[in-house]
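Before a computer can learn anything about folding, someone has to put a protein's shape into writing. The three-dimensional part falls to structure tokens, numbers that each stand for a local backbone shape. The protein below has been through that process, and both of its lines are reproduced in full.
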Amino acid sequence: MKNLLFVNGVALVLALSMFLYRHQIEDSQGQEKNLTSASTDCSKVKGFAKIVCLADAFKATLKDDQLALLQLAYSKSDAAKWSNFPAAFRNARRVGLNFGSMTPTQIEAAKALLKEVAGAGTNEGWDELQQLLNADDYLNANGGGSTYGTANYYIAFLGTPAAKGTFEIQFGGHHLAFANTYKDGLLTGATPSFRGVEPSGTFTWNEKSNQPLNQEQETLSGPTNKSPKVAFSLER
């Protein structure tokens, strides 16, 4: 009898373990399905509503501790916390969630939002921002070390993205500051705004040619500008 009870008890434990395991897998698949649905739904939304949709879709991919870093109250003090210095500098003050702490799925969702707010175009908008990230990854791989690279760039929501109210989407890191502020569905501010690049000129990353700021340099030093080329940077 004791042996029989022991065998039945083992069988019950195994059955319960399999039940819990199966439901954990189903829950995980359900969460992935919901994330995919959110992204798919956003593709059907237009205008300002798409920005809010993509912001919500990005937030839905985050854990509670990550969300606490991303979603902040709208304040002047946090809006002023930006820098174009590398992460190693003590005064490279930034707020938000850094890309180095995100999963590939979370980074994809963040970039989808940034692409929408920055706009599209060759060497402009999101294409320019991505090439600036590539430049910092180039520095990381060519002697700069771990304080350079996409992992050290931060994204923050100052205020909750919504149809009504004020909020800012802030993104930045070494040589880059991007910030769009919206009020009741309208873009009311786009500062701080900073673009710089190192290496300068054209460089190759992932077997592709990058030249994020070449056209700006050519414009400043074009035939109507007779002064010698001057390179400068306002470090913050």
Observations:
- The two ends are 79 Å apart (CA to CA).
- Residues 2-39, 227-235 have pLDDT under 50 and may be disordered.
- The chain has seven helices and nine strands.
- The chain has one domain: 47-220.
